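Standup notes
- HV: blocked on the assembly model, inputs below
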Amino acid sequence: MSEVAFDGVTKRFGDVTAVDQLTLTVHDGELLVLLGPSGCGKTTALRMVAGLEAVTEGELRIGDRVVNEVEAKDRDVAMVFQSYALYPHMTVARNIESPLVTRRFDTGDGVRRKLSAAERDQRVRDAAASLGLTELLGRKPAALSGGQRQRVALARAMVARPSAFLMDEPLSNLDAKLRVQTRIELVELHRRLGATFVYVTHDQVEAMTMADRIAVLDHGRLQQVGPPQAVYERPRNLFVARFIGSPPMNTLPGIVVRAGTGDGGSTTVRIGSQDLPLRAATAEGLADGTQVVVGIRPEDLVVDADGPLKAEVRAVEWLGHERLVVCELHDQRTIVRQPVGAAPVGVGEVLPLSADPARVHLFDPRTTERLP
Amino acid sequence: MTRRTREALLAYAMLLPSLVIFAWFFFYPLYRLVEMGLHQKNRAGTAERWVGWSQFSDVLGGDEFREGVRITGTYVLYTVPLGLVLGVLLAVAANRRLKGIKVFQAIFSSTIATSVAVASVIFFVLLNPQVGYFSSVEWFSLSDPDTALRGVALSSVWQNLGLTFVIVLAGLQAVPEEVDEAATLDGYGPVRRFFRVTLPMISPTLLFLVVVLVIFALQAFAQSDILTGGGPLGSTETLVWKIFNSQQPLDQGVGAVMAVGLFAITLVVSLAQFLILERRVHYGN
Amino acid sequence: MATDLHRTTRARVAWYALLTALAGVVLFPAYMTLVRALSQPREYVLAGQPPWPVSPEWDVFARAFTEGDMGRKFLVSAVVTGCIVAGQLLTATLAAYAFTFLRFPLRRTLFVVFMATLMLPIEVTLIPNVETVRSLGWLNSYPGLVGPFLATAFGTFLLRQGFRGIPRDLLDASQLDGFGHLAFLRRVAIPVTRPVVASFAVIAFLAAWNQYTWPRAVVTEGRWETVQIGLKSVAVETVDRSNIAFAAAILAAVPILLLLIFLQRHLVRGLTTGAVKG
């Protein structure tokens, strides 16, 4: 009922294509995160769902309706803006009440009508209570803290009981500590309401921790969509591989080397002059000598006395709960993540490293796509 | 109908009332002025004959228009520099933390409440040749053609004090105190500080005021109408006065040309001041 | 503002003396008008024109209403001013909203057209406008007095500046809430920019009340004279009645004085937005 579907949706502003042939379905009741760097088109896509931007090409559906020509107020969606967009001259109560004043709703008696003042008041109180805003109803936005304003924006979104909630970087204006706390509250809210959430952010930590599925966008195009774990463990291209994960995945140029045949044969990838063993499945279908980009996450590189890779330590960053060792491996900056208890390393040391073949990724240097 | 079309139609509907008024009372008259300038009406105003562009060249090059420009130009020179200096003087004097300074600020800004007509009557009280308080002062006597304009200008200078004061005061108050304090520490005395630090910093404000005061002076009419009726001997007949008194059918063609002349002068002056202002503002910062 | 200049009592006394002197100079002309308004004209001249009232006639202000017909003039001025301010608020608000929040072809061109009218003051367009008004039968009438001033480029500009301060998000949120542009204008745009609207209203009132040139051109009958036009008779009044004319001038300034005493803040803000940087 409240599925949101993009079908070949394109948005152009003059010569600039902001969203390019986006085909993506947000399932009913899921929390889907649109993730990507600034300018990737995620906010534009969100605004198209809201009805604040027109669709240039393609079809946009909410539920089973094609909504391309439907006005924002008739789409049964609510939006939480990055700046919260609260009316500065109205009290919290009137702000929350705002979506209920002129629109018509399906009430219990089966007819679609405007709500009475009493009904509106009740809904405002309920929404305020569920977000702990009851004491603040008489105040104006200027008298509220950032976190309180954000909750008012949420209450305003909730009060109309929309099929889909659209959120445009709602946490970006909060300080770090509040951000973590609010993240959890938002996920709980999603579970409680059971509604469809389309959530835009550039912060991949938010995406990883909150999403049912993540849709990664770059330059208006969908790169990959899937549950956080899938996107993390099997990135479809270099962009996704580097964007998700902090610190980002290490990428190094390499060449596939096959030696021997049959069961006795081995497949490795040569990075510089060193050979890193691969699983047969990873290099399946790749001929000997194929140029590839090797991707290994920082936590998958381990210090191993027998390890084939030799990296020179440039700096050590100690974060309290873990250590990041910044090394150089064949002129490429490589980061190794180590638990705090690991043996100390010094700058200038040459570290022998190895990686679990199951956690080595290969990408085509030309198409940047995952191999095979 | 697409959303874009609806939005555009709404916009045009919202602009329509203003545009109708502008077309009717601003742009059509401009066209009509040129049209009138090319014709000559008869005394009764019942017939119009074509005279062509020669009327333009005759009038704009003629004595009457030149007199009007001379008188109006002199009016600008009388009212603007003096008005600016006095306004700055009052603003500097009143821009300090003394008890009761607000009272003085209110008094200095009070002339903003006067209209041209009220100011003219007030100066009638002072300058009227028969019963004026200062009627015996020769320097701005209203009965002498050589000095009458000065008297009229005096009323404008006084009237503009309030506006000038308010604007310069706001400009002074926008100058951060630290700048003045730094200059004091550098050893500058108050006078030097004013000319080297304060004045440059309020120069955009002053330039804005010059534009405003010049425009006021170019439009001077009521003062002459009430104080001198244009006399003595036409020595206070500003351009607008002449235009106003060319409303009879016979004079309309000439009046229209003069109005176009005034429009051109205003345009050139505004443009020049705008360009200077832009350059000063950019270099100043 | 140097505080070192005020530290000694002598310095402070000197400043107060200077300020008082300046205040005296500024107030003197209006003061003398009050003196002359109150004084019996013939006796004042006979007494040698001193700077204080002679044989004060306190009923001169009442006489301005009875003999000088100030009541009618005030009515005309009030109606004209009211109509102009209301008209300008309406047209300028709508136009400023369109320029700020709506997208439409020729937007920039039309804005230039608006600003171009600033170059065409009534003093320039007088003759054709009088012709228009006369041909419509609007001489000596409210429409004639009000017509040319129902729209304002200055007001549109000022209000547009105010509207531009409203974040775009508010319009988006309001559209999602179900409000169209006119509802947004009424519920959000105007309330949020109330100070700017108030400033403009004060300036518009001032300009309309103080108008001289246009009413002078379109009014030929005494009973249609505005308060300002009524003052021109000071030059032709007999000496005996001159004090009534002076009293009329003072009465003419009263509404503006009241306005300024209560709304001075708005006026200053409106005037200085263009003048002061930073």
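- HV (later): unblocked. The beta strands of chain B are 39-41, 48-50. Chain B has one domain: 55-284.
- Next: hand off to the docking folks.
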